[in-house]
Design a protein that fits this description.
Length: 276
Amino acid sequence: MKKILVPTDFSNTASHAFRFACEMGSRTKGEIYLLHIVEFPRLNGALPVPVQAYEQVYLKGLKEKGLKALEKFKAQGGKKVRIHFSLEHGTIASTVQKFATRKKIDLIIVGTHGSSGLEEYLVGSNAEKIVQTSKVPVIAVKKPYGISSIKNLVFPTNLHPGQDKLVARVKELQKFFQAKLHVLFVNTPSNFRRDIFIEKRLKEFAQEFQLKNYALNIFNDIDEENGIVNFSSRFKNSIIAMSTHGRRGLNHLFSGSVAEDVVNHIDCPVWTLSER
């Protein structure tokens, strides 16, 4: 977690993400890449208007505005880490991913306003789109959160095989925050399993991955998303760590995408890693 990318629109939630990133960067002696993206308008549903169509003075003004906002952000707690500022053009999610690849980013921290209802399924939040498309871990931050206050790490799992990479990353995250790990299996009506079977599998899971400072939990709810949200609400000062399949559009609508739904509907930070 040496190179941390923070996409920003300089909103309050972006400010929360920036401060969270600065605390992490300070602890890891890393550096922050603050990225502001300008999305060009489209004409009659066509391709984005090319950069050349904009007056250079307009782009210069955006750059100056961004640098002024950066100075304000630095004053909020960014003096202990090295910070780079970039202004780029394009769609949010694709530009973030290209930038992350180019700069060899280790972690993306993004502020989220969340979304709900039809907007969630057909449009979604920018944070959700970044979670869906990212090849590196993402932490979504909705409210002010100090990393030193995090004492609990909720790790939902379906107990399926082939989770070695995910669990290794979660253990690294647990060590970083020095938090207690709460391994969670959500039992739902559509995928119900007897507690005695799940308890056995959870114990085997903990032994297989040599977990430390952990608790094993079975939580009953109507679906996985509500189970994760309702279980996590029991703990203060927590972060959720989970995988995502990155489903989008109608696939999201019909199949669901639990990680992105949790990002939209919970206040604590959510760390995600794509399984794609």
